[in-house]
Amino acid sequence: MEKLTKIVLTGGPCSGKTTALAQIKEYFSNLGFRVFILPELPTMFSQAGVNFLTSNKSYFYQAEESLIALQIEMEYQFEKIAKAQEKPAIIVCDRGVMDISAYLSEDVWQAMLDDRQSNVVQLRDARYDAVIHMVTAANGAEKFYTNANNEHRSENIEQARELDEKLINAWTGHPRLRIVGNTETFSVKLNNVLSEISEVLGVPQPIEAERKYLVEVIGEIPNAVENDIYQTYLVSDSKDEVRLRKRGKEGSYVYFYTEKELSDTERIETERQITPREYVTLLEDADSTRETIYKKRTCFVWERQYFELDTFINPNIGITILEIECVNEGDVNLPPFIKVIEDVTGRKEYYNYNLAKKQESVV
C-alpha cells in the first residue's frame, strides 16, 4: 500500500472551497496522486430534506448525531478504497467532523462526544493529517461575497465572519492547521492552498515563510488550546532528522513519526500517524545524545494567523518560543499579549533538534 494522506478543506461561507477542490483534484492527479474528494455532508442532508433550523430539539440532535456518524463512516470506507489501490492517495474532506461542532452549543457538542465515548483529541488531532481553512470572502474580500452561487447559504457578511471564526476555533489545536486568507487575487489564494497541501505531502517547499521568536507572555491568550508534546529523536543515517512525537493531554494522545530533509532553499518533511505500539517499539532507536523534549504547546489564532507557543519543560532551559508558518513571506501581526525578546528565525541553535542535545554531548 502506498502512503495515504487525509486532509480537511474547510472555511467560512463563500471562501472558494468548491473551486479549490477542483484545482486540488487536477493539480495533484497530474503529480501522480490518486485524489478522492469527499462531499460536504451537511449540504447533502439539506438537499435530502433535513431541516437543521427545526425547533424540535430531539429531531435536531438526531440529525447532527447522524451527520457525525455518516461523516466518520464515509471517511472509513474511502480509506479502505484508497488503501486498496496502487498509487499514493489523498483524501480531501469537504469539511470534517469538527466543523459540525461550530454549529452546536457547547452542551450539545459535549453530549454527542459522551454518547460516542469520544473526545476532541481523537476527532480533531488523530483523524486528519492536515486542516486547511479558507477564510470567507466576507473578511478581506467583501466585494466578492455573495449567496447567489449557493442556495443553501443564507448568511450576511457579519454572520459569515462570525461563522468563519467559529470554524477556526473548532480546529484550533490541530498540529497542522493552516489558515489561507484573502490576498490580492483569488488565484493567489488558490495557489496558497496548493502550496500548503504540497508541504503536507512532502513536495519541496520554500522555507522562508516560517517565523520563530523568543517571547514572553504578558497577557491572557484568548481561545487558547493547550497540549502536552513529548518529542524524541531517533538515530538515522539517511535523514537530517527523524523524530517521534506524542501529543495530547489528560491521558488521550496521538502519535506521529516524522522525517525531515533540509537544504538552504527547501525542506522536505513527511509525517505519518503511528500506533501506540509502533511508538513504543521505535523508542528503542532513540538517539542517546539527545533528551526527550517535553513542552507545553498553546495554540491560538490572532488576526487570522495560526500561532504555536511552546514552553519548554524538559530540557529546563527557561525559554518560550512562538512559531508561525505562512505560505508567503510578509509581515506577521504579533498579538499584544506577546512580548518579543528576539527574532530567532533561521537560527539553528533554536531548532528543537539542537535544543534536545545533551550538555555532555556538546563539543
CATH topology of the largest domain: the name is Rossmann fold
At the fourth level of CATH, the homologous superfamily of the largest domain is P-loop containing nucleotide triphosphate hydrolases
- How many structural domains? 2
- How large is the count of helical segments? 10
Can you tell me about this structure?
- The structure is a single chain.
- This protein is of the alpha+beta class and 363 residues long.
- It has two domains: 4-203, P-loop containing nucleotide triphosphate hydrolases (Rossmann fold, 3-Layer(aba) Sandwich); 210-361, Hypothetical Protein Pfu-838710-001.
- The chain is 31% helix and 30% strand.
- The protein contains ten helices and 15 strands.
- It has helices at 17-30, 41-48, 57-84, 97-101, 106-116, 120-125, 157-171, 186-201, 276-282, 352-355; strands at 4-11, 34-38, 89-94, 130-134, 177-180, 205-206, 210-217, 225-233, 241-249, 252-262, 266-274, 293-302, 305-314, 320-325, 338-343.
- It has a ten-stranded antiparallel beta sheet. Strands 2-3-1-4-5 form a five-stranded parallel beta sheet, with helices on both faces.
- The longest helix has 28 residues, at 57-84.
- It is globular, with a radius of gyration of 21 Å.
- The termini are far apart.
Task: State the main characteristics.
363 residues; alpha+beta; Rossmann fold; Hypothetical Protein Pfu-838710-001; ten-stranded antiparallel beta sheet; five-stranded parallel beta sheet; 10 helices; 31% helix; 30% strand
